């Protein structure tokens, strides 16, 4: 468990506000996510479910997509918020998308309505991730 520091407070508040917008009529499990770009700007997403179930998009991927459409390609923090006692980690599919846009040592936080926090590094969530670095014509430079 980690503490909600002043540095993390804006991410926490943004993720909490995003969870209020969740479209989760099937699971009744609202999720909000906030990601912080290197310039300090914060982008948010909520889960958007679908009657076909499989077309559901998680809050993590929607938040990252919001940053990407604003021109951001690298993020230095991610906060998940769920209004329940358990602290929710990102799903497997989202871990792969996180590995694309976050460095391996970046902290990924999960928070809840009790202001409790848990954190993992990207590397802990997805060890030996397949990233663009493995693609033959990748222009992405390893930064660590
Ligand atoms: N969900 C997320 O948005 N993020 C997570 O980290 C875990 C799961 C969503 C998907 C679905 O709408 C609902 O939570 C239940 O799985």
Overview of this protein structure:
With 144 residues, the protein is α+β, with helices and mostly antiparallel strands. It has one domain: 3-Layer(aba) Sandwich (Cytidine Deaminase, domain 2), CATH 3.40.140.10. 25% of the residues lie in helices and 21% in strands. The chain has a 5-stranded mixed beta sheet with strand order 2-1-3-4-5. A hairpin with a 4-residue loop joins β1 and β2. The two termini are 27 Å apart. The mean pLDDT is 95. Tetrahydrodeoxyuridine binds next to α2.
Reported by name, the CATH topology is: Cytidine Deaminase, domain 2
In the CATH hierarchy, the architecture is 3-Layer(aba) Sandwich
Shape field: globular
Number of strands: 5
Task: Enumerate the spans where pLDDT stays under 50 for 5 or more consecutive residues.
Answer: none
The portion of residues assigned to helices is 25-40%
The first-level CATH class is given as Alpha Beta
Number of domains: 1
Rg estimate, integer Å: 15 Å
Enzyme class: hydrolase
GO biological process, one term: pyrimidine-containing compound metabolic process
Catalytic activity: 2'-deoxycytidine + H2O + H(+) = 2'-deoxyuridine + NH4(+); cytidine + H2O + H(+) = uridine + NH4(+)
GO cellular component, one term: cytosol
Task: Write a compact overview of the structure shown.
The protein is of the alpha+beta class and 144 residues long.
Secondary-structure blueprint of this entry?
Elements: H1 9-19, E1 32-37, E2 42-46, H2 59-69, E3 75-82, H3 92-101, E4 107-112, E5 117-121, H4 122-125
Parallel strand pairs: 3-4
Antiparallel strand pairs: 1-2, 1-3, 4-5
The structure holds tetrahydrodeoxyuridine.
The site of tetrahydrodeoxyuridine (THU) has 15 residues, from α2.
């Amino acid at each position: 468990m980690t503490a909600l520091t002043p540095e993390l407070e804006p991410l926490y508040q943004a993720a909490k506000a995003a969870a209020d917008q969740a479209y989760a009529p099937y699971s009744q499990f609202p999720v909000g996510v906030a990601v912080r770009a290197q310039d300090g700007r914060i982008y948010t997403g909520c889960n958007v479910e679908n009657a076909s179930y499989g077309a559901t998009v998680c809050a993590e991927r929607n938040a990252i997509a919001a940053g990407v459409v604003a021109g951001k390609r690298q993020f230095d923090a991610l906060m998940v918020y769920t209004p329940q006692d358990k602290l929710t980690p990102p799903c497997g599919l989202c871990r792969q998308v996180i590995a694309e846009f976050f460095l391996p040592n970046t902290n990924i936080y999960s928070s809840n309505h009790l202001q409790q926090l848990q954190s993992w590094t990207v590397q802990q969530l997805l060890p030996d991730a397949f990233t663009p670095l493995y693609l033959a014509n990748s222009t992405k430079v390893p930064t660590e």
